TrEMBL record:
<dbReference type="GO" id="GO:0004180">
    <property type="term" value="F:carboxypeptidase activity"/>
</dbReference>
<keyword id="KW-0378">Hydrolase</keyword>
<keyword id="KW-0121">Carboxypeptidase</keyword>
<feature type="region of interest" description="Disordered">
    <location>
        <begin position="311"/>
        <end position="332"/>
    </location>
</feature>
<dbReference type="InterPro" id="IPR007527">
    <property type="entry name" value="Znf_SWIM"/>
</dbReference>
<dbReference type="GO" id="GO:0008270">
    <property type="term" value="F:zinc ion binding"/>
</dbReference>
<feature type="compositionally biased region" description="Polar residues">
    <location>
        <begin position="311"/>
        <end position="324"/>
    </location>
</feature>
<keyword id="KW-0645">Protease</keyword>
<protein>
    <submittedName>
        <fullName>Carboxypeptidase D</fullName>
    </submittedName>
</protein>
């Protein structure tokens, strides 16, 4: 396997028959019984498809790690992208916009299609960008390879740390630096579970972040074009029992808001369609009774810790033996 790793640094066109077969085998492609011209065509097609190494998990973890340290793009070997020195100056970046993002996401992500593009701001990946989950974005120009490298760090949305115990996901993607396709996404990867195919939401969030930098950058004479982190609210995951629910003081209640028009039609009349027993909020005593009754149930709902924190009362536990949690809560 180590000798095969050394052969990864060769151009596909310079490989021997044995090296071509090993190159295809590592990517799960069976190519027995072919002569060198046919093997070369298959290897070049596999290279354009950017198939992942060892899809069937036939090699050891150490060998697989070494195999993934390098990537072949445009018949050139690119070392581990996260090892390149990067800067916060995007003045030399190629033209890049929503068209390039959509063109890449439609190819690599199953969530995007022609109809979904009209509402792309409602997707989870755009929300990560808009709410400031992208913590960092840097760039490097690979002049000899004719590419642009971008490295970002994205904060997990639903938990405190990543699966590896880190605080941020590492994201990188390459843009074409020459030709008619200058600015197109060539390859992208993320350290999350879904980032090996290049179509996860963290990669998309970094793409939107780059588009925002290049679209909103100022004139060249004003200085370097730098990435600035978007403002984000102070939110983080917590247990249900620590959740605080309260009404905003700035927003008036619906009963205080008066309509600006008269009741000419029946659909403009304010009607409370709830049952009479449900129109008035339950009293605190009723909530305490309900919470104490839930404590005796074997299978408790996920919201029970929050109810227990706010309404648990030892003095009322004796009065809840005959209370059924399914009955309607009425004011005591």
């Amino acid at each position: 396997m180590s000798s095969c790793m050394d052969k990864e640094n060769k151009r596909v066109s310079d490989m021997t028959v044995a090296e071509l077969k090993e190159y295809l085998k590592m990517r799960g492609v069976t190519a027995s019984g072919y002569l060198k011209p046919a093997l070369l065509q298959i290897a070049q097609a596999v290279e354009k498809m950017m198939l992942s190494i060892d899809p069937n998990h036939e090699y050891g973890n150490s060998d697989l790690k070494n195999a993934r340290e390098t990537f072949i793009i445009h018949d050139m070997v690119i070392r581990q992208p996260l090892s390149y020195p990067v800067v916060n100056d995007f003045i030399d970046s190629p033209p890049f916009g929503l068209y390039d993002i959509f063109n890449y996401l439609i190819y690599s992500s199953a969530e995007y299609d022609k109809q979904g593009l009209a509402a792309y701001k409602s997707f989870e990946d755009y929300r990560l960008f808009d709410e400031g989950y992208v913590e960092s974005l840097r760039t490097a120009t690979l002049k000899e390879e004719g590419m642009y490298l971008f490295i970002g760090k994205v904060r997990p949305a639903m938990k405190d740390t990543t699966d590896d115990g880190k605080k941020l996901y590492d994201v990188w993607f390459m843009l074409e630096g020459k030709g008619n396709n200058r600015g197109s996404v060539l390859m992208a990867r993320c350290t999350c579970k879904g980032g090996q195919d290049g179509g996860c939401k963290h990669i998309a969030a970094c793409l939107y972040s780059l588009e925002d930098v290049l679209h909103n950058r100022e004139s060249v004479t004003s200085g370097p074009c730098q990435w600035v982190k978007r403002a984000t609210s102070e939110t983080k995951p917590c247990e249900i029992k620590n959740l605080q629910i309260r009404r905003s003081d700035k927003r008036p209640s619906p009963s205080e808001v008066k309509r600006k028009y008269e009741h000419f039609y029946a659909d403009n009349i304010d009607v409370d369609v709830r049952h009479e027993n449900d129109r008035s909020p339950p009293s605190k005593k009723a909530l305490i009774t309900f919470t104490n009754a839930l404590s005796s149930v074997s299978s408790k709902p996920c919201v029970f810790p929050l109810l227990e924190k706010n309404y648990q009362s030892e003095s009322s536990q004796e009065t809840t033996q005959e209370f059924k949690p399914t009955q309607l809560i009425k004011d005591g």
